[in-house]
Specification:
The protein contains eleven helices and 13 strands. The protein is an alpha/beta fold. Strand 1, helix 1 and strand 2 form a beta-alpha-beta unit. Helix 5 packs parallel to helix 6 and helix 9 crosses helix 11. The longest helix is centred in the N-terminal third of the chain and has 19 residues. It starts with a strand and ends with a helix.
Length: about 350
């Protein structure tokens, strides 16, 4: 099996993907600047898979460091690129951070890989669609003006990769536009571990339920949705991780129809914020103290994906429902409550 570079590999989705790669026989090398993750995750990955992946602390804004890394770690056949800032609300407040950390790092990485035959999987997002006109949204939907700087960095990232793949024959790219990853590994040894106040819904729900946060704010309840709250396509992080492995295998098997491909990765089902909270309360028996607040800038009202193309071409399908997502997230929250990082 090939040697796969995973940028941002100690992060939430990255760590789960590393586990799935190692379970499939790949050798993994992680680079991460640990800006939003913990080095202890490497030991957790080893406890699950039996293998501690190679790790180099590195910031992709440092061109010399990337060059030195690639000189030491030769034979990389695939790259899965997660390293990026990922909060919609934070990006609205600090757009320059997002353009620096999400765009310049991608360009640096691609320049460093020039001349190497590489299979490249890009961590993209359904935010590239903006507020869709038709649901479920397909890969053929128009790319609208982004609702946030974060969404714009994903649009720009896709454009950079598509144009580069079209110009460079030895670069193959699959961009996975995923929806809302939640949940944790069934072992409860890895999961979402935000530094400071969570920017995503589910860790805020679990932290409120366990008493770490006093109150959860639901941003808006008068949208044109069944209960007035925003609707999202939530996907279990392990299902999402497996999609990355499927993408690498598609490229290795030379099954791509073009040098650049895009796939939606979700469940194809929409669930509202309030539905998620009430489902969490039902399956865990824990009440969540929440209030209704004003809508946030940059938030999309409702989106869920048509994932039939990924199911057909990647030979992949999301297997876990909302109950499994939330019960695993709660198990992880209890684990880190009793075993603090």
């Amino acid at each position: 099996m090939g040697r796969i570079l995973v940028t941002g590999g100690t992060g939430y989705i990255g760590a789960h993907t590393v586990v799935e790669l190692q379970n499939n026989g790949y050798e993994v090398v992680i680079i991460d600047n640990l800006s939003n993750s913990d080095i202890k995750i490497l030991d957790q990955i080893k406890a699950i898979s039996g293998i501690k992946p190679a790790f180099v602390k590195l910031d992709l804004r440092d061109k010399a460091a990337i060059a030195a890394f690639l000189k030491e770690y030769t034979g990389i056949t695939g790259v899965i690129h997660f390293a990026a800032s990922k909060s919609v609300s934070e990006s609205v407040k600090n757009p320059l951070l997002y353009y620096d950390n999400n765009i310049s790092t991608l360009v640096n990485l691609l320049n460093s890989l020039a001349g190497k035959a590489v299979n490249f999987v890009f961590s993209s997002s359904c935010t590239v669609y903006g507020e869709p006109d038709v649901l479920p949204v397909t890969e053929e939907a128009p790319i609208k003006k982004a609702e946030s700087p974060y969404g714009n960095t994903k649009q720009i990232g896709e454009e950079i990769l598509k144009e580069t793949a079209n110009a460079v024959n030895d670069l193959k790219v699959i961009a996975l536009r995923y929806f809302n990853p939640v949940g944790a590994h069934e072992s409860a040894l890895i999961g979402e571990l935000p530094n400071g106040v969570p920017q995503n819904l589910v860790p805020f729900v679990t932290q409120t339920a366990i008493g770490k946060r006093e109150l959860l704010t639901v941003f808006g309840d008068d949208f044109e949705t069944p209960d007035g709250s925003c609707v999202r396509d939530f996907i279990h992080v392990v299902d999402l991780a497996k999609a990355h492995v499927a993408a690498i295998k598609r490229m290795e098997a030379k099954q791509m129809a073009a040098n650049y491909e895009v796939f939606n990765v979700g469940t194809g089902n929409g669930h509202s914020v309030l539905e998620l909270i009430h489902t969490f309360e039902k399956i865990t028996g824990q009440l969540v103290n929440y209030r209704i607040g004003p809508p946030r800038d940059g938030d999309i009202v409702k989106i869920w994906g048509d994932v039939s193309l990924a199911e057909k071409e990647l030979n992949w399908k999301a297997e876990n429902g909302l109950d499994s997502m939330l019960s695993s997230a709660w198990a992880w929250e209890n684990y880190i409550h009793n075993n603090p990082f």
